[in-house]
Amino acid sequence: MKLTYYGQSTIEIVANGKTLLFDPFITPNNLAKHIDVNSLKPDYILVSHGHGDHVADLITVQKNSGAKVICIAEIAGWLGKQDITNVHGMNIGGGFNFDFGRVKMVNAVHSSALPDGSNGGNPAGFVIYSEDKAIYFAGDTALTYDMKLLEDENLSWAILPIGDNYTMGADDAIKAAAFVNCKNVIGIHYDSFPVIKIDKEEVAGKFEKAGLNLKLPAIGDSVEL
To answer: Do residues 80 and 110 touch, judged by C-beta distance below 8 A?
Structure first.
């Protein structure tokens, strides 16, 4: 299983021969200018919530690829109004089996509205079960005790926001890793805007001191999961 980072919260995971793209936000991100959004042809797009820095390229990528979009029911309804019908709507606590594995939608503490002001439903995270691994994509979230519900899931990796201000910062992400009982962490949602700029060396030191394996791949780089 391979993960590629495209900046902010945009990641791609290849699992069981299928490509999953999470929260596509590339063209407005100056840090990802070298990424050609039109080259992305996922089989699935997973959307954690409706904010622009998570859906900016959603329609473009979906129409280029024909990907099935997995998202909360309200975003599924909004996509229907954009003439996108290859959508699988879910809600918090529900799971569904796809051809690459199982997806469970889990709680996130944040807000959600779509760029045109439409209701984005509740923000969410996902647990992906595939290739005998369980991967937690937290989405945009505060630290929440609900994460303790995942401590027995035998997570292989936790993909956590670390940029602070809009989401958890590094200190709370370290607590989140303890809550979900996962020592392997990939950091997301940092550096794209001035208010979420981090000191990577300082953050890496904090995770190392906590006994955690933190990966911060450069934009366009990949990590084997």
So the answer is: no
Domain that holds residue 35: 2-224
Q: What is the pTM of this model?
A: 0.98
Q: What angle do CA 38, 103, 136 make, to 5 degrees?
A: 85
Structure confidence at residue 10 as a pLDDT band (50, 70, 90): very high
Query: Domain of 203: which CATH number?
Result: 3.60.15.10
Q: Which tens digit of pLDDT belongs to each residue from 11-61?
A: 999 999 999 999 999 999 999 999 999 999 999 999 999 999 999 999 999
Structural domain tally of the chain? 1
Residues 6+ apart with CB under 8 A from 23: 8, 9, 10, 11, 46, 47, 48, 54, 55, 139
Mean pLDDT over each residue of the chain, to the nearest integer: 98
Mean pLDDT of 52-73: 98
Buried b or exposed e, range 40-72, using 16+ CB within 10 angstroms: bebbbbbbbbbbebbbbbbbebbeebebbbbbb
